[in-house]
Amino acid sequence: MRNSAKRPSMEIKQGVRMAHDSTNLSPLAARKCSGLRGHLRVPGDKSISHRALIFGALARGETQIHGLLESEDVLNTAKAMAAFGATVRKDDEDVWYVEGLGTGSLVEPTGVLDFGNSGTGARLVMGIAGAHAFATTFMGDASLSSRPMGRVLNPLREMGVEVLSRSGDRLPLTLKGADPAQPITYRVPMASAQVKSCVLLAGLNMAGTTRVIEPVKTRDHTEKMLRGFGATLGEEMNDAGETVLTIEGLQELTAQDVTVPGDPSSAAFPIVAALITPGSELVIEDILLNETRTGLITTLLEMGADITIENERNSGGERIGDIRVRSSALKGVTVPAARAPSMIDEYPVLSVAAAYAEGETRMEGLEELRVKESDRLAAVAAGLEANGVPFEEGKDYLVVRGGGTIAGGGRVITHLDHRIAMSFLVLGLGAEKPVTVDDAAIINTSFPGFADLMEALGAEFE
Ligand SMILES: O=C(O)C1=C[C@@H](OP(=O)(O)O)[C@@H](O)[C@H](O)C1
Ligand SMILES: C=C(OP(=O)(O)O)C(=O)O
Protein backbone atom coordinates (compact mmCIF):
# COMPACT_ATOMS: atom_id res chain seq x y z
CA MET A 1 0.00 0.00 0.00
CA ARG A 2 1.12 3.53 -0.63
CA ASN A 3 1.12 6.45 1.76
CA SER A 4 -1.81 8.79 1.23
CA ALA A 5 -0.60 11.61 -1.01
CA LYS A 6 -0.90 14.92 0.79
CA ARG A 7 -0.35 18.31 -0.78
CA PRO A 8 3.07 19.63 0.24
CA SER A 9 2.63 22.35 2.82
CA MET A 10 2.79 25.81 1.32
CA GLU A 11 4.00 29.08 2.67
CA ILE A 12 3.43 32.66 1.59
CA LYS A 13 6.65 34.43 0.66
CA GLN A 14 6.45 38.03 -0.49
CA GLY A 15 3.09 37.42 -2.10
CA VAL A 16 4.12 34.41 -4.17
CA ARG A 17 3.17 30.93 -3.00
CA MET A 18 6.21 28.70 -3.21
CA ALA A 19 6.45 24.93 -3.01
CA HIS A 20 8.42 23.85 0.02
CA ASP A 21 11.80 22.19 -0.28
CA SER A 22 12.19 18.49 -0.92
CA THR A 23 11.59 17.53 2.72
CA ASN A 24 7.90 18.41 2.31
CA LEU A 25 7.11 16.64 -0.96
CA SER A 26 4.89 13.55 -1.28
CA PRO A 27 6.91 10.89 -3.08
CA LEU A 28 5.20 7.87 -4.58
CA ALA A 29 6.66 4.80 -6.31
CA ALA A 30 5.13 2.50 -8.90
CA ARG A 31 6.25 -1.08 -9.35
CA LYS A 32 5.80 -3.74 -11.97
CA CYS A 33 2.24 -5.03 -11.94
CA SER A 34 0.53 -7.95 -13.60
CA GLY A 35 -1.92 -5.99 -15.73
CA LEU A 36 -4.83 -3.59 -15.31
CA ARG A 37 -8.43 -4.69 -15.75
CA GLY A 38 -11.82 -3.07 -15.37
CA HIS A 39 -14.32 -0.41 -16.45
CA LEU A 40 -13.66 3.15 -15.30
CA ARG A 41 -14.43 6.80 -15.77
CA VAL A 42 -11.85 9.55 -15.46
CA PRO A 43 -12.71 13.05 -14.12
CA GLY A 44 -14.24 15.72 -16.35
CA ASP A 45 -12.34 17.53 -19.08
CA LYS A 46 -10.18 20.32 -17.66
CA SER A 47 -10.51 22.70 -20.64
CA ILE A 48 -14.30 22.41 -20.72
CA SER A 49 -14.56 22.72 -16.92
CA HIS A 50 -12.65 26.03 -16.83
CA ARG A 51 -14.76 27.39 -19.66
CA ALA A 52 -18.08 26.22 -18.19
CA LEU A 53 -17.35 28.29 -15.06
CA ILE A 54 -16.14 31.28 -17.08
CA PHE A 55 -19.07 31.33 -19.52
CA GLY A 56 -21.47 30.66 -16.66
CA ALA A 57 -20.16 33.78 -14.91
CA LEU A 58 -20.56 35.87 -18.08
CA ALA A 59 -24.05 34.59 -18.96
CA ARG A 60 -27.37 35.85 -17.68
CA GLY A 61 -29.22 33.31 -15.55
CA GLU A 62 -28.05 30.18 -13.74
CA THR A 63 -25.74 27.74 -15.51
CA GLN A 64 -25.73 24.14 -14.24
CA ILE A 65 -22.59 22.06 -14.63
CA HIS A 66 -22.62 18.26 -14.29
CA GLY A 67 -19.31 16.41 -14.04
CA LEU A 68 -17.16 19.47 -13.39
CA LEU A 69 -13.53 18.50 -12.82
CA GLU A 70 -13.01 19.33 -9.14
CA SER A 71 -9.24 19.70 -9.39
CA GLU A 72 -7.12 22.47 -7.90
CA ASP A 73 -6.72 24.24 -11.28
CA VAL A 74 -10.46 24.37 -11.93
CA LEU A 75 -11.39 25.28 -8.36
CA ASN A 76 -9.06 28.28 -8.63
CA THR A 77 -11.01 29.42 -11.69
CA ALA A 78 -14.26 28.95 -9.71
CA LYS A 79 -12.87 31.17 -6.94
CA ALA A 80 -11.79 33.78 -9.47
CA MET A 81 -15.26 33.96 -11.05
CA ALA A 82 -16.77 34.33 -7.58
CA ALA A 83 -14.30 37.17 -6.89
CA PHE A 84 -15.65 38.92 -10.01
CA GLY A 85 -19.15 38.81 -8.51
CA ALA A 86 -20.65 35.58 -9.90
CA THR A 87 -22.38 33.24 -7.46
CA VAL A 88 -20.72 29.82 -7.65
CA ARG A 89 -21.96 26.90 -5.56
CA LYS A 90 -22.44 23.15 -5.70
CA ASP A 91 -25.14 20.92 -4.26
CA ASP A 92 -24.91 17.59 -2.44
CA GLU A 93 -25.07 15.75 -5.76
CA ASP A 94 -21.93 17.54 -7.01
CA VAL A 95 -23.87 19.64 -9.53
CA TRP A 96 -22.34 23.12 -9.81
CA TYR A 97 -24.40 26.28 -10.30
CA VAL A 98 -23.07 29.59 -11.62
CA GLU A 99 -25.24 32.69 -11.52
CA GLY A 100 -23.71 35.08 -14.05
CA LEU A 101 -23.56 38.85 -14.32
CA GLY A 102 -23.60 39.46 -18.08
CA THR A 103 -20.76 40.26 -20.50
CA GLY A 104 -18.77 43.38 -19.65
CA SER A 105 -20.45 43.58 -16.21
CA LEU A 106 -18.08 41.88 -13.79
CA VAL A 107 -17.08 43.70 -10.60
CA GLU A 108 -13.57 44.50 -9.40
CA PRO A 109 -12.14 41.69 -7.21
CA THR A 110 -11.15 42.95 -3.76
CA GLY A 111 -8.34 40.43 -3.31
CA VAL A 112 -5.54 38.86 -5.32
CA LEU A 113 -6.60 36.06 -7.71
CA ASP A 114 -4.46 32.97 -7.09
CA PHE A 115 -4.42 30.60 -10.07
CA GLY A 116 -2.11 28.09 -8.41
CA ASN A 117 -0.59 25.88 -11.11
CA SER A 118 -3.01 26.74 -13.93
CA GLY A 119 -1.93 28.42 -17.16
CA THR A 120 -5.41 28.03 -18.64
CA GLY A 121 -7.17 29.69 -15.70
CA ALA A 122 -4.73 32.60 -15.50
CA ARG A 123 -4.54 33.31 -19.24
CA LEU A 124 -8.26 33.03 -20.02
CA VAL A 125 -9.24 35.17 -17.04
CA MET A 126 -6.65 37.82 -18.05
CA GLY A 127 -8.67 38.29 -21.23
CA ILE A 128 -11.82 38.99 -19.23
CA ALA A 129 -10.10 41.22 -16.65
CA GLY A 130 -8.35 43.27 -19.35
CA ALA A 131 -11.67 44.23 -20.91
CA HIS A 132 -13.03 45.61 -17.62
CA ALA A 133 -11.96 49.11 -16.50
CA PHE A 134 -10.59 48.06 -13.13
CA ALA A 135 -7.47 46.53 -11.58
CA THR A 136 -7.03 42.78 -11.17
CA THR A 137 -3.99 41.17 -9.57
CA PHE A 138 -2.90 37.66 -10.60
CA MET A 139 -0.58 35.27 -8.81
CA GLY A 140 0.29 31.59 -9.00
CA ASP A 141 2.63 28.93 -7.64
CA ALA A 142 6.34 28.74 -8.42
CA SER A 143 5.65 26.89 -11.70
CA LEU A 144 3.02 29.32 -13.00
CA SER A 145 5.15 32.30 -11.91
CA SER A 146 7.92 31.12 -14.20
CA ARG A 147 5.71 30.68 -17.30
CA PRO A 148 5.57 33.31 -20.07
CA MET A 149 2.57 35.63 -19.93
CA GLY A 150 3.74 38.01 -22.69
CA ARG A 151 1.85 35.83 -25.18
CA VAL A 152 -1.45 37.10 -23.70
CA LEU A 153 -0.22 40.44 -22.35
CA ASN A 154 0.91 41.63 -25.79
CA PRO A 155 -2.53 41.48 -27.44
CA LEU A 156 -4.08 42.93 -24.28
CA ARG A 157 -1.63 45.85 -24.42
CA GLU A 158 -2.73 46.47 -28.03
CA MET A 159 -6.28 46.73 -26.68
CA GLY A 160 -5.13 49.43 -24.22
CA VAL A 161 -4.61 47.31 -21.11
CA GLU A 162 -1.91 48.45 -18.69
CA VAL A 163 0.33 45.75 -17.19
CA LEU A 164 2.10 46.31 -13.88
CA SER A 165 4.67 43.68 -13.05
CA ARG A 166 8.00 43.48 -11.25
CA SER A 167 9.26 40.37 -12.95
CA GLY A 168 8.94 40.98 -16.69
CA ASP A 169 5.88 39.40 -18.25
CA ARG A 170 5.53 36.88 -15.44
CA LEU A 171 3.21 36.52 -12.43
CA PRO A 172 2.57 38.15 -10.06
CA LEU A 173 1.15 41.05 -12.05
CA THR A 174 -1.72 43.51 -12.09
CA LEU A 175 -3.84 44.37 -15.12
CA LYS A 176 -5.44 47.78 -15.30
CA GLY A 177 -8.31 47.32 -17.73
CA ALA A 178 -8.57 49.56 -20.78
CA ASP A 179 -11.21 52.33 -20.72
CA PRO A 180 -12.47 52.27 -23.36
CA ALA A 181 -10.95 49.03 -24.60
CA GLN A 182 -9.89 48.90 -28.24
CA PRO A 183 -10.88 45.80 -30.25
CA ILE A 184 -8.05 44.42 -32.40
CA THR A 185 -7.23 41.93 -35.12
CA TYR A 186 -4.65 39.49 -33.74
CA ARG A 187 -2.69 36.72 -35.44
CA VAL A 188 -1.75 34.16 -32.80
CA PRO A 189 2.03 33.72 -33.13
CA MET A 190 2.27 30.25 -31.54
CA ALA A 191 -0.10 27.26 -31.54
CA SER A 192 -2.00 28.16 -28.36
CA ALA A 193 -5.67 27.75 -27.53
CA GLN A 194 -5.05 29.78 -24.38
CA VAL A 195 -3.90 32.82 -26.36
CA LYS A 196 -6.75 32.47 -28.88
CA SER A 197 -9.23 32.17 -26.02
CA CYS A 198 -7.81 35.13 -24.10
CA VAL A 199 -8.25 37.43 -27.10
CA LEU A 200 -11.76 36.11 -27.87
CA LEU A 201 -12.83 36.54 -24.23
CA ALA A 202 -11.45 40.09 -24.16
CA GLY A 203 -13.30 40.83 -27.41
CA LEU A 204 -16.54 39.41 -26.01
CA ASN A 205 -16.38 41.82 -23.07
CA MET A 206 -15.73 45.07 -24.97
CA ALA A 207 -17.65 47.05 -27.58
CA GLY A 208 -16.67 46.53 -31.24
CA THR A 209 -15.41 43.70 -33.45
CA THR A 210 -12.41 41.56 -32.48
CA ARG A 211 -10.71 39.23 -34.94
CA VAL A 212 -8.39 36.33 -34.14
CA ILE A 213 -6.36 34.73 -36.91
CA GLU A 214 -5.24 31.23 -36.08
CA PRO A 215 -2.59 29.87 -38.46
CA VAL A 216 -2.58 26.45 -36.77
CA LYS A 217 -5.82 24.97 -35.48
CA THR A 218 -5.82 24.34 -31.72
CA ARG A 219 -8.50 22.96 -29.39
CA ASP A 220 -11.79 24.64 -30.20
CA HIS A 221 -13.65 24.54 -26.87
CA THR A 222 -13.93 28.32 -26.56
CA GLU A 223 -15.52 28.59 -30.01
CA LYS A 224 -17.92 25.69 -29.40
CA MET A 225 -18.95 26.87 -25.95
CA LEU A 226 -19.37 30.50 -27.03
CA ARG A 227 -21.88 29.26 -29.60
CA GLY A 228 -23.41 26.88 -27.06
CA PHE A 229 -24.07 29.85 -24.74
CA GLY A 230 -25.82 31.65 -27.60
CA ALA A 231 -23.11 33.92 -29.02
CA THR A 232 -22.56 34.48 -32.73
CA LEU A 233 -18.98 33.78 -33.77
CA GLY A 234 -17.78 34.24 -37.34
CA GLU A 235 -15.41 31.57 -38.65
CA GLU A 236 -13.85 31.44 -42.10
CA MET A 237 -10.68 30.33 -43.84
CA ASN A 238 -8.52 33.07 -45.42
CA ASP A 239 -6.44 32.68 -48.62
CA ALA A 240 -3.45 31.54 -46.56
CA GLY A 241 -5.51 28.67 -45.10
CA GLU A 242 -5.67 30.31 -41.66
CA THR A 243 -8.83 30.27 -39.54
CA VAL A 244 -10.27 33.74 -38.96
CA LEU A 245 -12.60 34.07 -35.96
CA THR A 246 -14.71 37.20 -35.60
CA ILE A 247 -16.59 38.19 -32.47
CA GLU A 248 -18.87 41.14 -31.85
CA GLY A 249 -18.44 42.44 -28.30
CA LEU A 250 -21.02 42.67 -25.52
CA GLN A 251 -23.26 39.97 -26.95
CA GLU A 252 -25.53 38.54 -24.33
CA LEU A 253 -24.82 34.94 -23.28
CA THR A 254 -27.60 32.75 -21.91
CA ALA A 255 -27.11 30.31 -19.04
CA GLN A 256 -26.85 26.64 -20.08
CA ASP A 257 -26.83 23.11 -18.69
CA VAL A 258 -23.36 21.73 -19.32
CA THR A 259 -22.34 18.08 -18.95
CA VAL A 260 -18.56 17.76 -18.93
CA PRO A 261 -17.26 14.60 -20.68
CA GLY A 262 -14.26 12.62 -19.41
CA ASP A 263 -10.89 14.24 -20.08
CA PRO A 264 -8.92 12.49 -22.86
CA SER A 265 -5.71 13.98 -21.44
CA SER A 266 -6.41 12.15 -18.15
CA ALA A 267 -7.59 8.97 -19.90
CA ALA A 268 -4.16 8.92 -21.60
CA PHE A 269 -2.54 7.58 -18.40
CA PRO A 270 -4.64 4.43 -17.90
CA ILE A 271 -4.60 3.90 -21.69
CA VAL A 272 -0.80 3.82 -21.88
CA ALA A 273 -0.59 1.86 -18.60
CA ALA A 274 -2.84 -0.86 -20.09
CA LEU A 275 -0.90 -0.96 -23.36
CA ILE A 276 2.46 -1.56 -21.67
CA THR A 277 1.43 -4.07 -18.98
CA PRO A 278 0.73 -7.60 -20.30
CA GLY A 279 -2.69 -9.06 -19.50
CA SER A 280 -4.51 -5.71 -19.39
CA GLU A 281 -7.93 -4.76 -20.68
CA LEU A 282 -9.71 -1.53 -19.73
CA VAL A 283 -12.88 0.22 -20.87
CA ILE A 284 -12.77 3.96 -20.15
CA GLU A 285 -16.25 5.40 -20.45
CA ASP A 286 -17.62 8.75 -21.68
CA ILE A 287 -14.41 10.26 -23.03
CA LEU A 288 -14.35 13.45 -25.07
CA LEU A 289 -13.38 12.61 -28.68
CA ASN A 290 -13.23 16.14 -30.11
CA GLU A 291 -10.80 15.83 -33.04
CA THR A 292 -8.67 18.73 -31.76
CA ARG A 293 -7.84 16.44 -28.80
CA THR A 294 -7.36 12.94 -30.23
CA GLY A 295 -3.78 13.09 -31.55
CA LEU A 296 -2.56 10.59 -28.96
CA ILE A 297 -5.14 7.97 -29.98
CA THR A 298 -4.16 8.43 -33.66
CA THR A 299 -0.49 8.01 -32.74
CA LEU A 300 -1.02 4.96 -30.52
CA LEU A 301 -3.07 3.28 -33.29
CA GLU A 302 -0.18 3.91 -35.69
CA MET A 303 2.11 2.27 -33.12
CA GLY A 304 -0.04 -0.86 -33.25
CA ALA A 305 -2.15 -0.29 -30.13
CA ASP A 306 -5.25 -2.43 -29.67
CA ILE A 307 -7.67 0.45 -29.04
CA THR A 308 -11.30 0.53 -30.14
CA ILE A 309 -13.88 3.27 -29.73
CA GLU A 310 -17.29 1.98 -28.68
CA ASN A 311 -20.67 3.52 -28.06
CA GLU A 312 -19.73 6.67 -29.98
CA ARG A 313 -22.35 9.40 -29.62
CA ASN A 314 -22.99 13.12 -29.38
CA SER A 315 -23.33 14.86 -26.03
CA GLY A 316 -23.82 18.61 -25.68
CA GLY A 317 -22.32 19.31 -29.12
CA GLU A 318 -19.26 17.10 -28.55
CA ARG A 319 -18.40 13.62 -29.83
CA ILE A 320 -17.86 11.25 -26.91
CA GLY A 321 -17.38 7.50 -26.60
CA ASP A 322 -15.94 4.61 -24.59
CA ILE A 323 -12.34 3.56 -25.20
CA ARG A 324 -11.46 -0.15 -24.98
CA VAL A 325 -7.73 -0.79 -24.70
CA ARG A 326 -5.77 -4.05 -24.41
CA SER A 327 -2.07 -4.71 -23.85
CA SER A 328 -0.22 -4.44 -27.16
CA ALA A 329 3.15 -4.93 -28.75
CA LEU A 330 3.92 -1.35 -29.83
CA LYS A 331 6.35 -0.22 -32.51
CA GLY A 332 8.08 3.15 -32.88
CA VAL A 333 6.71 5.80 -35.27
CA THR A 334 7.42 9.38 -36.33
CA VAL A 335 4.88 11.83 -34.90
CA PRO A 336 4.64 14.82 -37.25
CA ALA A 337 4.88 18.36 -35.90
CA ALA A 338 1.47 19.18 -37.39
CA ARG A 339 -0.15 16.78 -34.92
CA ALA A 340 1.29 18.51 -31.84
CA PRO A 341 -1.66 20.83 -31.06
CA SER A 342 -4.07 17.87 -30.90
CA MET A 343 -1.95 16.06 -28.31
CA ILE A 344 0.14 18.80 -26.73
CA ASP A 345 -0.35 17.60 -23.13
CA GLU A 346 0.15 13.94 -24.03
CA TYR A 347 3.84 13.91 -25.09
CA PRO A 348 5.17 12.96 -21.63
CA VAL A 349 2.99 9.84 -21.51
CA LEU A 350 3.57 9.10 -25.22
CA SER A 351 7.30 9.08 -24.37
CA VAL A 352 6.53 6.34 -21.83
CA ALA A 353 4.64 4.30 -24.45
CA ALA A 354 7.62 4.86 -26.78
CA ALA A 355 10.01 3.48 -24.16
CA TYR A 356 8.09 0.17 -24.33
CA ALA A 357 7.75 0.21 -28.15
CA GLU A 358 10.12 -1.67 -30.45
CA GLY A 359 12.40 0.77 -32.29
CA GLU A 360 12.59 4.56 -32.43
CA THR A 361 9.76 7.00 -31.81
CA ARG A 362 10.50 10.47 -33.11
CA MET A 363 8.38 13.39 -31.86
CA GLU A 364 8.72 16.69 -33.68
CA GLY A 365 7.49 20.27 -33.25
CA LEU A 366 7.73 20.21 -29.45
CA GLU A 367 8.85 23.80 -28.75
CA GLU A 368 5.69 24.54 -26.72
CA LEU A 369 6.60 21.73 -24.29
CA ARG A 370 9.37 23.95 -22.93
CA VAL A 371 6.86 26.44 -21.46
CA LYS A 372 4.35 24.17 -19.75
CA GLU A 373 4.17 23.54 -15.98
CA SER A 374 7.81 22.49 -16.35
CA ASP A 375 10.17 22.35 -19.30
CA ARG A 376 8.54 19.05 -20.25
CA LEU A 377 11.16 18.08 -22.83
CA ALA A 378 13.92 18.41 -20.23
CA ALA A 379 11.82 16.77 -17.48
CA VAL A 380 10.95 13.77 -19.68
CA ALA A 381 14.57 13.42 -20.80
CA ALA A 382 15.78 13.46 -17.19
CA GLY A 383 13.14 10.88 -16.19
CA LEU A 384 14.07 8.55 -19.07
CA GLU A 385 17.75 8.92 -18.22
CA ALA A 386 17.15 8.11 -14.55
CA ASN A 387 15.37 4.89 -15.54
CA GLY A 388 17.73 3.62 -18.20
CA VAL A 389 15.76 4.47 -21.37
CA PRO A 390 17.90 5.67 -24.30
CA PHE A 391 16.77 8.91 -25.99
CA GLU A 392 17.94 11.99 -27.87
CA GLU A 393 16.67 15.42 -26.83
CA GLY A 394 16.79 18.26 -29.38
CA LYS A 395 15.68 21.88 -29.08
CA ASP A 396 12.19 20.99 -30.31
CA TYR A 397 12.22 17.22 -30.76
CA LEU A 398 12.63 14.02 -28.80
CA VAL A 399 13.64 10.58 -30.02
CA VAL A 400 12.98 7.66 -27.67
CA ARG A 401 14.73 4.36 -28.41
CA GLY A 402 12.45 1.72 -27.02
CA GLY A 403 12.10 -2.01 -26.88
CA GLY A 404 14.74 -2.96 -24.34
CA THR A 405 14.02 -3.99 -20.77
CA ILE A 406 13.29 -0.86 -18.73
CA ALA A 407 15.58 -0.93 -15.72
CA GLY A 408 13.59 1.59 -13.65
CA GLY A 409 14.90 2.31 -10.17
CA GLY A 410 15.11 6.04 -10.86
CA ARG A 411 13.79 8.99 -8.86
CA VAL A 412 12.01 11.48 -11.12
CA ILE A 413 11.81 15.18 -10.32
CA THR A 414 8.29 16.44 -11.12
CA HIS A 415 9.03 20.21 -11.01
CA LEU A 416 5.41 20.91 -9.93
CA ASP A 417 4.21 19.18 -13.11
CA HIS A 418 1.25 16.78 -12.75
CA ARG A 419 1.80 15.19 -16.17
CA ILE A 420 5.43 14.35 -15.40
CA ALA A 421 4.34 12.74 -12.12
CA MET A 422 1.60 10.59 -13.73
CA SER A 423 3.72 9.65 -16.77
CA PHE A 424 6.60 8.26 -14.75
CA LEU A 425 4.30 6.40 -12.37
CA VAL A 426 2.96 4.70 -15.51
CA LEU A 427 6.55 3.93 -16.63
CA GLY A 428 7.12 2.19 -13.29
CA LEU A 429 4.20 -0.23 -13.82
CA GLY A 430 6.29 -2.15 -16.37
CA ALA A 431 9.85 -1.49 -15.18
CA GLU A 432 12.19 -4.00 -13.50
CA LYS A 433 12.70 -1.84 -10.40
CA PRO A 434 10.20 0.63 -8.87
CA VAL A 435 10.12 4.16 -10.31
CA THR A 436 9.68 6.96 -7.77
CA VAL A 437 8.28 10.42 -8.45
CA ASP A 438 9.29 13.05 -5.91
CA ASP A 439 5.83 14.62 -5.59
CA ALA A 440 2.53 12.89 -6.29
CA ALA A 441 0.45 15.60 -4.60
CA ILE A 442 0.78 17.87 -7.65
CA ILE A 443 -1.43 15.36 -9.53
CA ASN A 444 -4.42 16.99 -7.78
CA THR A 445 -4.13 19.96 -10.15
CA SER A 446 -5.76 17.91 -12.93
CA PHE A 447 -6.58 14.34 -11.82
CA PRO A 448 -7.73 14.04 -8.20
CA GLY A 449 -7.99 10.38 -7.19
CA PHE A 450 -5.49 9.21 -9.83
CA ALA A 451 -3.55 6.85 -7.57
CA ASP A 452 -6.65 5.26 -5.98
CA LEU A 453 -8.27 4.77 -9.39
CA MET A 454 -5.17 3.13 -10.83
CA GLU A 455 -4.76 0.89 -7.77
CA ALA A 456 -8.37 -0.25 -8.09
CA LEU A 457 -7.50 -1.44 -11.62
CA GLY A 458 -4.42 -3.37 -10.46
CA ALA A 459 -1.60 -0.82 -10.39
CA GLU A 460 0.88 -1.18 -7.55
CA PHE A 461 2.05 1.98 -5.82
CA GLU A 462 4.01 2.29 -2.58
O1 LIG B 1 -7.01 26.07 -23.67
C1 LIG B 1 -6.85 25.10 -22.91
O2 LIG B 1 -7.76 24.66 -22.16
C2 LIG B 1 -5.53 24.46 -22.87
C3 LIG B 1 -4.63 24.72 -23.87
C4 LIG B 1 -3.29 24.12 -23.95
O3 LIG B 1 -2.33 25.12 -23.65
P1 LIG B 1 -1.74 26.11 -24.79
O4 LIG B 1 -2.80 26.94 -25.31
O5 LIG B 1 -0.70 26.91 -24.05
O6 LIG B 1 -1.15 25.17 -25.81
C5 LIG B 1 -3.10 22.95 -23.00
O7 LIG B 1 -1.73 22.67 -22.83
C6 LIG B 1 -3.75 23.19 -21.65
O8 LIG B 1 -3.63 22.06 -20.82
C7 LIG B 1 -5.22 23.50 -21.79
C1 LIG C 1 -0.40 22.56 -19.80
C2 LIG C 1 -1.35 22.20 -18.96
O1 LIG C 1 -2.17 23.03 -18.25
P1 LIG C 1 -2.14 24.61 -18.01
O2 LIG C 1 -1.44 25.27 -19.16
O3 LIG C 1 -3.55 25.00 -17.85
O4 LIG C 1 -1.37 24.83 -16.71
C3 LIG C 1 -1.63 20.77 -18.73
O5 LIG C 1 -2.63 20.47 -18.06
O6 LIG C 1 -0.89 19.88 -19.18
From TrEMBL:
Which residues does 3-phosphoshikimate bind? 46-47, 51, 192, 194, 345, 372
Give the record's keywords alphabetically: Amino-acid biosynthesis, Aromatic amino acid biosynthesis, Cytoplasm, Transferase
* Record note on quaternary structure: Monomer.
The protein's annotated catalytic reaction(s) are: 3-phosphoshikimate + phosphoenolpyruvate = 5-O-(1-carboxyvinyl)-3-phosphoshikimate + phosphate
Q: Name the top EC class.
A: transferase
What family classification does the UniProt entry report for this protein? Belongs to the EPSP synthase family.
Q: Which GO terms describe its biological process?
A: amino acid biosynthetic process; aromatic amino acid family biosynthetic process; chorismate biosynthetic process
Enolpyruvate transferase domain ranges (all copies): 33-452
The catalytic activity of this protein is classed by the Enzyme Commission as: 2.5.1.19
Binding positions for phosphoenolpyruvate per the UniProt entry: 46, 119, 147, 194, 376, 419
Source organism: Cohaesibacter marisflavi
Q: Which domain of life is it from?
A: Bacteria
Q: Which NCBIfam families match?
A: aroA
Q: Describe the task this protein carries out.
A: Catalyzes the transfer of the enolpyruvyl moiety of phosphoenolpyruvate (PEP) to the 5-hydroxyl of shikimate-3-phosphate (S3P) to produce enolpyruvyl shikimate-3-phosphate and inorganic phosphate.
In the UniProt record, the gene name given for this protein reads aroA
Catalytic residues as annotated in Swiss-Prot or TrEMBL: 345 (proton acceptor)
Gene Ontology molecular functions: 3-phosphoshikimate 1-carboxyvinyltransferase activity
Q: Where in the cell is it found?
A: Cytoplasm
The protein depicted here goes by the name 3-phosphoshikimate 1-carboxyvinyltransferase
One GO cellular component term, please give it: cytoplasm
**Its annotated pathway?**
Metabolic intermediate biosynthesis; chorismate biosynthesis; chorismate from D-erythrose 4-phosphate and phosphoenolpyruvate: step 6/7
Which InterPro entries does the UniProt record give?
Answer: Enolpyruvate_Tfrase_dom, Enolpyruvate_Tfrase_sf, EPSP_synthase, EPSP_synthase_CS, RNA3'P_cycl/enolpyr_Trfase_a/b
